[in-house]
Structure formats: C-alpha cells, structure tokens
Design a protein that fits this description.
CATH superfamily: Glutaconate Coenzyme A-transferase
CATH architecture: 3-Layer(aba) Sandwich
Number of domains: 1
Helix content: 10-25%
Largest sheet: 8 strands, mixed
Number of strands: 11
Structural class: alpha/beta
Radius of gyration: 18 Å
Shape: globular
Number of helices: 6
Distance between the termini: 58 Å
Strand content: 25-35%
CATH class: Alpha Beta
Order of helices and strands: HEHEHEHEHEEEEEHEE
Length: 232
C-alpha cells in the first residue's frame, strides 16, 4: 500500500462538504499548516472541526473561520480569535466547549475502538446538561461518546513512507491521540524518510494508524504568545 502523496492538495483530495475533521496541535504548536492551507484553497464548507483550539484570526483554523468553512467547532480553548468570538456571538457558528482531558480521552476511545467513556470532568456544570450521569463508588461520572471523525489530520516532525511518525517536543500534544482516532488519518511531516531510518524505540505513532503521508514545506511555526523572563 503506497501511503505517500505529493502534497497536501493530493492527500486531501476527497475531503468534501459537511465532513468531521480532527486537527492536531495545541494553540499554534504542531498544527498541520500545509493541510489547513489546502482546505482553505479547496473551499469545502459546512465542516465540523475538532481541535484543542480554533487558531488565531490569521493563522491555523482561524483561516478557515475567515472563509466561513467551519459550521461547528468542538474545542477546549478559543480565547485568541476575534473572528471566532464574532461568529459565536452572532449565532453563525455552533460551538461545543469541552474539558481538555475529555477531548483527549474521546480521541483515545475512538482509537481504541471504544464507543464511550465515563469521566468526572464536567459533573455538576453546564457540560453535563442532557448527558447520562452514573455513579461509581462515591463519585459521579459523565458518559461521553468517542469521536466519529471522517478524517484526522496531524503534523509530525519526521515520518517514514510506512506512516510511522515522530513528534518533536511539545508539538507532540494532541497529534498522537488524533492520529489514532480518524477513519482516515493524513500526516504531514517536516522530514520524510525511508523505512528503517527512524529508531523504532522512539516512534510515537505506529504506521498502522496512518493512511496518507506527505512532506510539508514552508512552515511558519508561529508562536501564539511569547512569554519571557524580564532581564535585571
């Protein structure tokens, strides 16, 4: 099975309107920049995007919000995007905010083939409205369903032509969990190598989870908020 594609346009060729897509990354760290650009160029509409956050106004998923391609956003944090705020308050965008651990675990459940999980996060809050609550021992838990995503799009530092992936430092974040969770997983990488060139002891995502892979280019790797220690 040949998993290697020439670029993002080819790898994302069959993503169509109204699909559900998992997008790796945390803030602007480890996001699939080339794939997001390709989705904007492709112009698909009515998407449900599942990600840790919604990018910023002119980068990441924020680019797709500007072009009105996102129908629903499922995320944990959305505080740095003025266009997101405008669409939310005007009723143009459907938003589901969920605890970050729940986001991660619902991805994990999908990857493990589990239909649902129970979690204590959100019990007694608005997050619990309309959801089943079950008591285990002396504690209440919410029933949360595994994600059902058409595609997962992730970004890795290195990958081989078999789809094995290695992430670098904090860019690892949500990428490994989301790589497990899509019906079809597409990975963009900074370096694409031949099988055997990656140390098997340090592979974070086994190739069995990855359906398509391509070598990306021109990564900005933008920093969302730079915080430094003041000099004396």
């Amino acid at each position: 099975m040949n998993k290697v594609y020439k670029n993002a346009d080819e790898a994302l060729h069959d993503i169509t309107d109204n699909m559900t897509i998992l997008l790796g990354g945390f803030g602007l760290c480890g996001i699939p920049e080339n794939s997001i650009t390709a989705l904007v160029k492709k112009g698909v509409k009515g998407l449900t995007c599942i990600s840790n956050n919604a990018g910023v106004d002119d980068f990441g998923i924020g680019l797709m919000l500007q072009t009105r391609q996102v129908k629903k956003m499922i995320a944990s944090y959305v505080g740095e995007n003025a266009e997101f705020e405008r669409q939310l308050l005007s009723g143009e965008l459907d938003v589901e905010l969920i605890p970050q651990g729940t986001l991660a675990t619902r991805c994990m459940a999908a990857g493990y083939g589990m239909p649902a999980i129970y979690t204590p996060a959100g019990v007694g809050t608005e997050v619990a409205e309309g959801k089943e609550v079950r008591r285990f021992g002396d504690k209440d838990y919410l029933l949360e369903y595994a994600f059902d995503a058409d595609f997962a799009i992730v970004k890795a530092w290195k990958g081989d032509t078999m789809g094995n992936l290695v992430y670098r430092d904090t860019a690892r974040n949500f990428n490994p969990l989301m790589a497990m969770a899509g019906k079809i997983t597409i990975a963009e990488v900074e370096e694409l190598v031949e099988p055997g060139e990656l140390d098997a002891n340090f592979i974070h995502t086994p190739g069995i989870y990855v359906n398509r892979i391509f070598k990306g280019a021109n990564y900005e790797k933008r920093i969302e908020n730079r915080t430094t220690t003041p000099r004396p």
